[in-house]
Design goal:
Order of helices and strands: HEHE
Oligomer: single chain
Number of strands: 2
Helix content: 25-40%
Structural class: alpha+beta
Length: 66
Amino acid sequence: MRDKKDKAIVVVIGQITTNQAGQLLKEFIKVKQKYAPNGRGTIATGLKSDVGNLLQRENQRIKEIE
């Protein structure tokens, strides 16, 4: 029997630069396309102090991935 595709992942990574955040963003998008091409996702980048808002989708920098 195949596994149900009912899982999600949330990642918060701190102590990185803006450039590192951009590189991680690109890599997450590539991997998402490989493993879940039909899945929907949300990626947000911002300051550590804004993590709560980012997780609650209140930040304007949130990007929908398809």
